[in-house]
Amino acid sequence: MGFLSIEGLTASYGGKTDVLSGVTLSVPRGAVVGLIGPSGSGKSTVLRTLVGLLKPRAGKVTVGGQAVDYGDRASLRAARDRFAIVFQQYNLFQNMTALRNVTVAPTLVKKRPAEEVEAEGRALLARVGLASKVDSYPDELSGGQQQRVAIARALALKPEILLLDEVTAALDPELVGEVLDTIRSLQSDGMTMLIVSHEMAFIREVASTVVFMDQGRVVEVGPPSQILDAPKSDRLRDFTARILRH
Question: Are 182 and 152 in contact (CB under 8 A)?
Answer without folding.
Answer: no
